[in-house]
Write a structure and sequence with these properties.
The protein has strands at residues 3-7, 10-12, 18-25, 30-39, 46-51, 57-59, 67-72, 77-82, 91-100, 108-111, 115-119. By secondary structure, it is mainly beta. The mean pLDDT is 94.
């Protein structure tokens, strides 16, 4: 069984910082791309940042220069450092992993339960 668990969300003032963590557990052969998505009430889920197994990163334009995604492959951990937070960053943030459970299994997307980030004025 593969599970993703986010942590680190909370309430923060504009301009503040938060660090989100995602722990992947279970039977994992290889995790390729991992990323953070967010979704606010009434809106579509959007990509925030992704990182490949090789460390290549991509960010949504809205968070470039403020957010940093990183991963620890040995620990199966994913992180999102969020600085200079804005009210519009308020959303539920979800961890995503595209991975294989075995060398012969198909790639699948796995999702965490989400963690709430609220940036208040």
């Amino acid at each position: 069984q593969v599970q993703l668990a986010e942590s680190g969300g909370g309430l923060v003032q504009p301009g503040g910082s938060l660090r989100l963590s995602c722990a992947a557990s279970g039977s994992i052969f290889r995790s390729d791309a991992m990323g953070w998505y967010r979704q606010t009430q009434g809106k579509q889920r959007e990509l925030v940042a992704v990182i490949t197994s090789g460390g290549t990163t991509n960010y949504a334009d809205s968070v470039k220069g403020r957010f940093t995604i990183s991963r620890d492959n040995a620990k199966n951990m994913l992180y999102l450092q969020m600085n200079s937070l804005k009210p519009e960053d308020t959303a539920v943030y979800y961890c995503n992993a595209n991975l294989r459970r075995s060398p012969f299994a198909s790639k699948m997307d796995y999702w965490g339960q989400g963690t709430q980030v609220t940036v208040s004025s």
